[in-house]
Design brief:
This protein is an alpha+beta fold. 26% of the residues lie in helices and 33% in strands.
C-alpha cells in the first residue's frame, strides 16, 4: 500500500502542476482541458514509470509482481557436413562399403581397379599421363541368402551430371537427393547366352563431382556373359537405392 499511496500522491502533484501550467482562458473552456493536460500528465507518468515502476505492476491489494524482460530468440546454426573425399585405395572403398551395408549384406572382392584420368601432353610433346581416379571393386554379394555379382566404383567426373545415363538402361528414372546429388536408377537384361540375367544399376553424382556407381546382378558378372547365380539379384532396386543414397560414402 505504501507504493500505491506514493503513486497516488505523485499523480496528484502532476495534476496540480498541470493546472498551474494551463492558461486561464483554457480553464474557462472545459472541452479543451483534456488536450492541454494530457501531454504533461503523460510525460509525468512516463518519468514515474521509468523511475518508480520499472518492471513491476501494482494492483490494489496485491504486491508488486515482477515482469520478466523480453528475451531475444535463440538460434542454432548447424554446419553441413562436407562429403568424404575419394577413397585412396580399394581397401578404403571396401571399408566404406562395409560401413554402408551395416551387416545387411556381405561381399567378397575378386578383382580391383580404378577409373583412369588421362592428361594430354602440352605443346612440347611427350606421352599422355595416365593416373588412377578413385577406386573400384568387383566380386560377389550375398543378402538374405541370395548371391549375385556386383561392381562398385567411386571416381571424379565433372561432366557426369550432364550425361544421360538412362539412354543405355531400361526402367530408368532420375531423382535429386536432399544433398543435391543426382541419382539415376535403371536396369538391363543380359540376353544372349543368359537371357534370364538382369542387372540393377545405381549411379549417384554428388555436387562435388564425385560419382558413386554400382551394379548388382543375379549373374556372376553384372556386365553379362557369365553364369547365373540366382533367380534374382541379391538386392532389390529399393535396397540398392538406399545403399547408394547413404551419407557414409
Amino acid at each position: 500500500m505504501t507504493d500505491l499511496r506514493a503513486l497516488t500522491d505523485a499523480f496528484a502533484e502532476l495534476e496540480r502542476r498541470a493546472d498551474a501550467a494551463v492558461p486561464v482562458e483554457s480553464r474557462l473552456r472545459p472541452s479543451e482541458r483534456p488536450r492541454s493536460r494530457l501531454m504533461p500528465v503523460a510525460a509525468g507518468v512516463a518519468v514515474l514509470a521509468g523511475v518508480a515502476v520499472a518492471a513491476a505492476v501494482l494492483l490494489p491489494g496485491r504486491a508488486a509482481e515482477p515482469v520478466a524482460p523480453a528475451q531475444a530468440p535463440t538460434t542454432t546454426t548447424t554446419e553441413a557436413q562436407a562429403p568424404a573425399p575419394l577413397p585412396a585405395s580399394h581397401e578404403e572403398l571396401s571399408d566404406r562399403f562395409r560401413a554402408v551395408l551395416a551387416g545387411s549384406a556381405t561381399f567378397t572382392v575378386t578383382d580391383t581397379g580404378a577409373a583412369k584420368t588421362i592428361t594430354a601432353p602440352d605443346k612440347s610433346g611427350g606421352e599422355p599421363v595416365v593416373t588412377d581416379n578413385g577406386a573400384a571393386i568387383v566380386g560377389t554379394l550375398t543378402a538374405g541368402g541370395v548371391t549375385g555379382g556386383f561392381d562398385l566404383g567411386m571416381y571424379r567426373d565433372a561432366q557426369a551430371a550432364d550425361v544421360d545415363w538412362c539412354a543405355s538402361h531400361e526402367a530408368c528414372a532420375v531423382t535429386v537427393l536432399p544433398d543435391g546429388s543426382k541419382l539415376t536408377m535403371g536396369e538391363f537384361h543380359h540376353g544372349g547366352a543368359t537371357p534370364e540375367g538382369v542387372t540393377y544399376m545405381a549411379l549417384r553424382v554428388r555436387p562435388d563431382g564425385v560419382v558413386i556407381d554400382m551394379h548388382v546382378s543375379n549373374a556372376e558378372s553384372p556386365k553379362g556373359n557369365s553364369g547365373l547365380l540366382g533367380a534374382t539379384p541379391p538386392l532389390t532396386r529399393d535396397q540398392l537405392r538406399e545403399i547408394i543414397s547413404s551419407d557414409l560414402w
